[in-house]
Write a structure and sequence with these properties.
Layout (H helix, E strand, L loop, with lengths): L12 H15 L1 E11 L4 E7 L2 E6 L17 E8 L2 E3 H15 L8 E9 L3 E6 L2 E6 L17 E10 L4 E5 H22 L3 E9 L2 E6 L2 E6 L20 E10 L4 E5 L11 H4 L5 E10 L2 E7 L2 E6 L21 E10 L4 E5 L7 H8 L5 E9 L3 E6 L2 E6 L11 H4 L5 E10 L4 E5 L7 H6 L7 E10 L2 E7 L2 E6 L16 E10 L4 E5 L1 H18 L6 H4 L1 H4 L2
Parallel strand pairs: 13-15, 23-25
Antiparallel strand pairs: 1-2, 1-4, 2-3, 4-5, 6-7, 6-9, 7-8, 9-10, 11-12, 11-14, 12-13, 14-15, 16-17, 16-19, 17-18, 19-20, 21-22, 21-24, 22-23, 24-25, 26-27, 26-29, 27-28, 29-30
Length: 552
Amino acid sequence: MKFEDIEIEDVDFEAMLEESFKKSESRSDLVTGTVVKIDEKDNLAVVDIGGGRDANLALDEIKDEEGNILFNVGDNIDVLNMGRGRISYKAALGRAALNEFISEYDEEQEYIIEGVVTKKNKGGYVVEVDGLEFFMPRTLSYLSSKPGFEAIGKKVKAVIVKVDKDKGSVVVSRKELIERDKAKTDEIVGELLENKEPVVGTIKKITSYGMFVDVGGMDGLVHYSQISHKGPVNPSKYFQEGDEVNVIALEYDKKKRHLSLSIKDANPDPWADIDSIIGVGDTVTATVSNIEPYGVFVDLGEDLEAFLHVSEISWDKNVKHPKDYLTNGEEINVEVIEVDKEGRRLRVSLKSLLPKPMDAFVQQYRVGDVVKGKVTSITDFGAFVKVGSVEGLLHNQEISWDKSKNAKSELAVGDEVEVKIIKIDKDAGKISLSKKALEDSPIKAFAQTHKNGSIVTGTVKDKKDFGVFIALDDNVDALIRTEDLHPLKFDEIEKGQEIKGVISFIDENNDRIRVSVKRLERQEEREAMEQLNLNQDDSMTLGDAFGDKFKK
């Protein structure tokens, strides 16, 4: 029931009603006349209403739906004398019907009517119901008299409060029904708020912000935040109009006549005893209720909802959107991985119940195996290559022996590449791959012609705190540690400078070479000594060899 058009006035009802009856008696008489003329040109019929008086009747009033005239000249016709020479056939029919209604009226019964306001005057309104006209005094109408409010055409519901058979009038009251409704509302609300017990209501309307529920003849709003212990939900996903639900009254705004209801408070809160319902590690059956790009919300029953993050859907690390794996309404088994009682949040995992791709991989492959895979993504540090059902990392330094090449310069997503498995970390779920391991190592080739003690010359490529890197050959670099630079000074060395040294260490398996300048001086002295020993004869003494040097 809407009350925005209610306005209460202090008016003398009895005086106003009598005035209305007087006007009815003086202006409206039901008489039987005789048709004396039909003038289709002027669209009227002339009727003799007795006493030597003629009155004009609009011809349209005595035509049927097809336009045929229902009376002929000389026919008797019942009309209502409207005064000032005006009569009405239709009004006469209405008056006759009203008289019939009044004659059959049972004072022991209550009559509630629904009609439309068709006329108004100072005293009140005329309400038409199936061709019958009832009078509704202004003070019994609860209709506003404020500027801009239009009563004509308004549908109203009212109760008959007085029937005067002598005067042929029926008085109805909208006020009576409204006040009854108020009293009933107050009774319902008082009982709901006092008992605070769940009651059964019927859903009448579902909106985006909640549902209107009928409780004992009164409508209350269940806001979408008061539907479920899961939190705010879309009511249309869980209910239909006509469904019965348990509700509890929260509050009542008398001014707005607004009743707030709650479904969730009428049902047990699962979080109050969550430990006995569910725990980490439990496997449960859930229904997919909402899919978002970042994850999926699943319904666990018991008025509980859990979140399945996109990273927990599949072992595939390249899940673009959950909808590629799941659909709304689908039932799935998930494992509970977090129960946050304080935050009232549950997290579950789907992939934890699926076979781990790494387990299958280690059964099929070993370190050293040469396999083919497809490039799935490229990063600044390398490329990920899918081998079977898992991805391995092909680091930039494993792309080529040529250090100027990397994943971005040599590969593209979708490329099929042949690689060698160089490391498997099952616990961490990581696989390391190498492409250059399938090619001959430049250092291995270099080691065929060089060995520890070989004197080499290289060009400075880079300087670090711990030493200097020099290029010895194509794709062959060596390290001179800081302590092996003597007699050279670290601060004076520049990129591009040539440095001569001796190979002090070659590791073909790990592609490492170290060079020492410090050892070069000692080795050159030793080689000079060896050469000197070869050139001297058996009788030569040390003094002979260095005789001139000791002379002054």
